[in-house]
C-alpha cells in the first residue's frame, strides 16, 4: 500500500528554527532528516529565498525541493513548501483566475507571504498528482487594523475555496489558520472569547467551510458559548474587534449561507479524531503554557473529499520538553494512503 505523508508547521522564522540551541536541540534540520513526511508546508518563514536556502542548505543538498513566497515586508510572514519530489505549477497567492474564478479582493495578499501552492505526485494509486498549499492566515488582533486584515482575507479566501472544490482539484491546504473552530480546540476558551483566534465571526467562517461536525449544530452562539451573560465577543455578523472594516457582499453571502451542510472541505485531524480535547499545536512561550498543555489547535490540514477519504492517521509531533522546541508551534502530520 502506497502512502503520502504531509506535515504542516509554523516555523516561527526559518533561520531561528535551523539554529542549534543545545546538544539535544539542533533545530529543524535533524527533524527533516527523521520525519516521514513527503511534503512539509511551512508558515512564518520570515526570510527571503536566499536566506531560506542558506538556512536549509543541508536539507536541500540531501534532496528536498523548495518553493517559497516571501512577504514584501522583510522579516514578516512568508510561506514555503518542502518536498521530496519535484514541485510543479507553483503559484503564489490565490484567486488569479488561472485554475478557477478571479477574486479581485485577493490581490491585496499576493505579496504578503500568505499562500503558495504547487502540484506534486502523490504516489497513491488512483489519485495521481495533487495540489499542496501552505497557508498563513492573518493572525489578527482585536481592536486593531490587523483584525480588519484578517476579516478581509476571510472574505477573499472563502469563495476561492468553494471554487477550488467545485473544480474537482484534489487539494490539501495545510497551515496556520489562526482560528480555533470549536471549544475543544483551545484549553481556555471562556477567557478567549474576545481574543482574535476565537471570535464568533472567525469560528463561523470555519463553520461555513467545514460544517459543524461532529456537533449537531454550531457552537457559535449556543447556550454554552453565550454563558449566563452572553458572549462578550458578540455574535456572528457583528465582526467584533474590527476598526475600519465594513462587511461587504462577500461577508453578507457567507453569513447568509451559514454553516456548510454538505461540506467539500474537511479538517482532516478532527475527522480522524472527533473526540480529543487536549490535542493542540501552538503554545505561547509565556508562562508554563507548554508544560501544562494550555494550547490552541490552530494548525490544520484542510483537504478536499478525495484526500479526506484517504487519510489514515494524524498526529502532532510535539517536542518531549519545552527546551527541545525549535518553534512555538508543533508539526501536524497526516498520512494518506490508497
UniProtKB/TrEMBL annotation:
Site description Transition state stabilizer, residues in chain: 178
Keyword Magnesium assigned: yes
List of catalytic residues: 136, 176 (proton donor/acceptor), 329 (proton acceptor)
Site (Important for catalytic activity): 299
Cofactors that this protein relies on: Mg(2+); Mn(2+)
Keywords: Hydrolase, Magnesium, Manganese, Metal-binding
GO BP, one annotated term: DNA repair
Coiled-coil region list: none
Site residues by UniProt (Interaction with DNA substrate): 329
Mitochondrion is among the record's keywords: no
Positions of Mg(2+) binding: 10, 44, 176, 178, 328-329
Binding note for cofactor: Probably binds two magnesium or manganese ions per subunit.
Pfam families associated with the record: Exo_endo_phos (PF03372)
NCBIfam families reported for this sequence: xth
UniProt similarity note: Belongs to the DNA repair enzymes AP/ExoA family.
The protein, known as: Exodeoxyribonuclease III
Organism: Corynebacterium anserum
Amino acid at each position: 500500500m502506497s502512502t503520502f505523508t504531509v506535515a504542516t508547521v509554523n516555523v516561527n522564522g526559518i533561520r531561528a528554527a535551523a539554529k542549534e540551541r543545545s546538544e539535544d536541540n539542533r533545530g529543524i534540520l535533524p527533524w527533516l532528516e527523521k520525519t516521514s513526511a513527503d511534503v512539509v508546508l511551512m508558515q512564518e518563514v520570515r526570510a527571503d529565498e536566499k536566506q531560506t536556502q542558506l538556512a536549509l542548505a543541508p536539507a536541500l543538498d540531501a534532496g528536498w525541493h523548495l518553493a517559497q513566497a516571501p512577504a514584501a515586508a522583510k522579516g514578516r510572514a512568508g510561506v514555503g513548501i518542502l518536498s521530496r519530489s519535484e514541485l510543479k505549477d507553483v503559484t503564489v497567492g490565490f484567486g488569479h483566475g488561472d485554475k478557477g474564478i478571479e477574486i479581485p479582493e485577493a490581490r491585496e495578499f499576493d505579496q504578503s507571504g500568505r499562500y503558495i501552492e504547487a502540484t506534486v505526485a502523490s504516489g497513491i494509486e488512483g489519485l495521481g498528482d495533487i495540489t499542496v498549499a501552505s497557508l498563513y492566515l492573518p493572525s489578527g488582533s482585536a481592536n486593531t487594523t490587523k483584525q480588519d486584515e484578517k476579516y478581509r482575507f476571510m472574505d477573499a479566501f472563502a469563495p476561492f475555496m468553494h471554487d477550488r472544490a467545485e473544480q474537482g482539484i484534489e487539494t490539501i491546504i495545510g497551515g496556520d489558520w489562526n482560528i480555533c473552530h470549536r471549544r475543544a480546540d483551545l484549553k481556555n476558551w471562556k477567557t478567549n472569547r474576545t481574543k482574535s483566534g476565537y471570535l464568533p465571526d472567525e469560528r463561523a467562517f470555519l463553520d461555513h467551510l467545514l460544517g459543524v461536525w461532529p456537533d449537531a449544530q454550531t457552537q457559535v452562539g449556543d447556550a454554552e458559548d453565550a454563558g449566563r451573560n452572553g458572549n462578550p465577543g458578540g455574535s456572528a455578523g457583528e465582526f467584533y474587534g474590527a476598526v475600519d472594516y465594513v462587511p461587504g457582499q462577500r461577508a453578507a453571502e457567507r453569513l447568509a449561507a451559514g454553516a456548510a451542510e454538505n461540506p467539500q472541505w474537511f479538517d482532516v485531524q478532527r475527522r480522524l479524531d472527533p473526540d480529543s480535547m487536549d490535542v493542540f499545536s501552538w503554545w505561547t512561550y509565556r508562562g508554563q503554557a507548554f508544560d501544562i498543555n494550555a494550547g490552541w489547535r490552530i494548525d490544520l490540514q484542510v483537504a478536499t473529499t478525495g484526500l479526506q477519504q484517504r487519510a489514515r492517521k494524524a498526529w502532532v509531533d510535539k517536542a518531549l520538553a519545552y527546551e527541545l522546541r525549535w518553534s512555538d508551534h508543533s508539526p501536524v502530520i497526516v498520512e494518506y494512503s490508497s
